Amino acid sequence: MNCRSEVLEVTVEARQVEEAMLALLHTILLHRSSGKFHYKKEGTYSIGTVGTLDIDCDFIDFTFVRVSSEELDRGIRRAVSEFKDALSISGSDGMGQISLEFYQKKKSRWPFSDECIPWEVWSIKVNVVNLANEQERQICREKVGEKLGEKVINVVEVINRHEYLPKMPTQSEVDNVFDTSLKDVQPYLYKITYQITDTLGTSVSTTMRRLIKDTLAL
Amino acid sequence: MDSGLSPQDKKDLDKFIKFFALKTVQVIVQARLGEKICTRSSSSPTGSDWFNLAIKDIPEVTHEAKKALAGQLPGIGRSMCVEISLKTSEGDSMELETWCLEMNEKCDKDIKVSYTVYNRLSVLLKSLLAITRVTPAYKLSRKQGHDYVILYRIYFGEVQLSGLGEGFQTVRVGVVGTPVGTITLSCAYRINLAFMSNRQFERSAPIMGIIVDHFVDPPCSSQRANMGHPCNYRAPDEEDGYAGVQDSQEVCTTSFSTSPPSQLYASRLSYHHPAQAGAAELCHPAANQVIHQSVAKQFTFRSIYTDIRYTVSVTWRSVSPSDPVESLNAFTRKIGAFVNKSNTPITAASLDLPFAAFAPRGLDSEENDPMVQPPDSPPCPSPLQASLHSQGSDGSGQQDDFVMVDFRPAFSKDDLLPMDLGTFYREFQNPPQLASLSLHISSQSMADDLDSLPEKLAVYEKNIDEFDAFVDMLQ
């Protein structure tokens, strides 16, 4: 099975990085999160309810919708914050890429660890620019808002192709497909990684971090 | 042909389509209320949250949707549309967007109704939640209040897009294949949101300082004319005029079986790149002084807001001969609320203004106004599925998609001749920073100074005899 890969690219000011990443990652996760499964007898299950929340950005003229789950939001924010810090350390005109990967676990026998098989990867390339004055910042605020709107439409278009999704698992297999650790919602298993490049485009420090929901632990 | 569909599946599918249509309307109208929406996740299924999404039901909206559907379901040739329009305090109105729930003949016979179709409809509703915050009308709706309100109208049947003006754009939210046809959800939205003309603010004299907010009883909805309903919402527990939150007459499917395999479904969507509609703000420079002061006295709307932040209190009357604004209720639809009056748009290059095309201009006659007499759109059986809309924006026209907040220095003349005060301010607004005042450089030089201080002191101590001789010489 081939992993589906989608790339989005945005150009933002340094102070907009966090909100732009949150907007796009939350939009994707909104579509890739389900209510909590409750398995009953006879192989049936019921699904909990997913709430939603409008979030206004402070530095961008944009509002996005996210899943109403503080746990999920905290996890995403932690990852985005690390990415943002890494970008700012690299320099003011940095470039970077943050990736959201959905995967399935495949159990292996001891001593081999479980295999993670990605089935969808979203990569968001970020170019950070420096602006000279407030007038340009105001224009940038609106322009980035429009661009994010276009990206949301891109995301929705891809998701509504209804291409491969993991099969709905049985109770014993649910942890191989979904992240069941959250108490209110159940996203597909995912991990967020990032890498930073310098202005020349070369990978000076290819920093790969495995953040929350990592499965590799022997 | 649904001959292959079992009676139970057919019944389930009809139920899904019906509630999907009702939830679609709720999501669209709630996204135009002007407030942020917040619903809670619940780990336990309640049985009344269709498509496993927490979407509240505003009773009035459900009532209107059911009235429009009149017992039918969206089907092939029978589309359900939600039209969002804007109405100003002067009585001008303009259609902003039309959301269409349609069905075409392309069937997916193998798809599992109670599982795959249901889940895909759930994903489509999530997409709708996301897309409703992206179209230009969202920002307008967040700012509704004193000068304009957002209205909605639900109708069933043929899609009508002629009121959206020239060069409207479409965005496809998504598609879901079913055994009886493919459900398509899309939005056609206006991009030509021209600037409000001066005359609308000159007519109504501003009333100073009265900001009134109070809740009034909801109006009787039966007498509403066909002009659309205000997007307003009163929380169910505050209602006494309505029946409160309607009980779901049918409990939604919440049980699934783990056995069926997921179905593969791929469809090519035509992605229409939306024109840059810009901020589309209704901030008129002259009105900046008027917005917070004028209570529209020429019209009476009654709106109810759950949040006291909103400072408008207006009364909506349906039909009343003695009503001073009877013309409003006649729904004359004077399209032209946002009129780009000038026939010769001033380019930014000549004026050094970022959105100069929307600087205020003198009055022009309405005959030349393309907004009042929109050109005919070419006919098409399925306008949303063909790339029929004209790509109206080019390089110079792109400025027309933005609404400019003009920079008006005090006492400046109301013209745009070069070298007026405004131009002067703009030219000298952003002088480069003095190098010596740059914090970075000054701190660096201070650090250097401090570092070199001990050496300098050592040198001076060594040459102390010379300095003493110099001082003696001066005396």
Describe the 3D structure.
Chain B: Residues 362-399 are annotated as: Disordered. In chain A, the strands form four sheets. A four-stranded mixed sheet of chain A has the order 1-8-7-10. Chain A is of the alpha+beta class and 218 residues long. Chain A has four helices and ten strands. In chain A, strand 3 and strand 4 form a beta hairpin. Chain B has eleven helices and nine strands. In chain B, helix 1 crosses helix 2 (59-69) and helix 1 (7-31) packs parallel to helix 3. Chains A and B meet through helix 1, strand 4, strand 5, strand 6 and helix 3 of A and helix 3, helix 4, strand 4 and strand 7 of B.
Please describe the structure with a list of short key phrases separated by commas or semicolons.
heterodimer, A: 218 residues, alpha+beta, four-stranded mixed β-sheet, two-stranded antiparallel ribbon, 10 strands, 30% helix, 31% strand, B: 475 residues, two-stranded antiparallel sheet, 11 helices, elongated
Topology:
The complex is a heterodimer of chains A (218) and B (475).
Chain A: E1 4-13, H1 17-31, E2 33-35, E3 37-39, E4 44-47, E5 52-56, E6 63-67, H2 70-90, E7 95-106, E8 115-129, H3 134-159, H4 174-177, E9 185-187, E10 190-197
Parallel strand pairs in A: 1-8
Antiparallel strand pairs in A: 2-9, 3-4, 5-6, 7-8, 7-10
Chain B: H1 7-31, H2 59-69, E1 79-88, E2 93-104, H3 113-131, H4 136-142, E3 148-157, E4 169-178, E5 181-189, H5 199-203, E6 229-230, E7 255-257, H6 288-291, E8 301-302, E9 315-316, H7 326-329, H8 348-351, H9 421-427, H10 439-462, H11 464-474
Antiparallel strand pairs in B: 1-2, 1-3, 2-5, 3-6, 4-5, 8-9
Helix pairs in contact in B: 1-2, 1-3
